[in-house]
Design a protein that fits this description.
single chain
Length: 69
């Protein structure tokens, strides 16, 4: 079961690198509007992890839903 622990450590490191990339892109700044697109871009950047430093710039397109009447 040692492989499971190593895999978990790799996943945590992967996600930490993704958070660092999101911080460097300013995704956590106070003046950034929070909506479907900005949330999606931030989440994808974190999940992409180290790939961000190899030219991956994940973006998402979504239409914000209007509240029902």
């Amino acid at each position: 079961m040692r492989g499971t622990g190593i895999g978990g450590v790799i996943v945590v490191i992967w996600l930490v690198i993704g958070v660092v990339a999101a911080v460097q892109r300013g995704y956590f700044s106070d003046d950034r509007e929070v909506n479907c697109k900005t949330f999606g871009d931030t989440a994808l950047t974190i999940v992409a992890g180290p790939l961000n430093y190899f030219g991956v710039n994940p973006k998402i397109e979504c239409d914000d839903l209007e509240p029902s009447r």
